[in-house]
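Sample intake sheet
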Amino acid sequence: MRRSLLHFFPVLMLGAVGLAIGAGPKDSGDTNKPRPADKAATGKAVPFFDVTEFIKEYDKNKDGFLSKEELPERFRHSFDQIDTNKDGKLSREELEKGFVFLQSRRRPSDFVFILVEMSDCDECCAEELQVVYEFLRKLDKNKDGKIDADELNKGRDELVMLRVDDIFKHLDTNKDGKISREEAKGQIKRHFDDLDTNKDGVITRDELITAAKEKPGSLGKEKKPSKEESRKEKPSKEK
């Protein structure tokens, strides 16, 4: 009923996003040497981020610290966050506490890469990507291969109208262009009084469109009066 942001939780493979921070010692060819999987099986903790190996690999001047220049370029965006004492270099302690900042930044658009890379059904994945592709093409009204803010707003309005039309198609049983309390179901019924802003006992298309365009989580919350309204509500002091 209300417009809400889609929340994507990318679960990309470390190798796919270039996370080298978990690299362990190179295979020396010793088949008797326990591997990480073997250690996990024994119940011993397998470190996600080996600070010793990370410093050893990138510490060019061998001073035991990593400067911004020594840090791989893909990790430098978080240097200032990890360098808590602001001395221009990363110590072992700082890396242990701030290694989470070395992870690649996640974006909602990552879901497309997940579909392409991690699909276990190419036909199903291609079908889902086609839905996304066709929708993006519709958003690009001027066909310049880009989506600007104006096109995004128009696309949002079109989606709202489609959803409102669908709600009225299923709930407006007498086809009078309104949803009465008796016709309302589900979320519309539960939030009927909030949606019926003019308190005339029915929900109109305009009322539903207005509600659908409000920010997520605002349903049922009382609007704070403006400063001008607050001054009007305050009783004047008697002289």
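Comment: Residues 1-46 have pLDDT under 50 and may be disordered. The chain has eleven helices and four strands.
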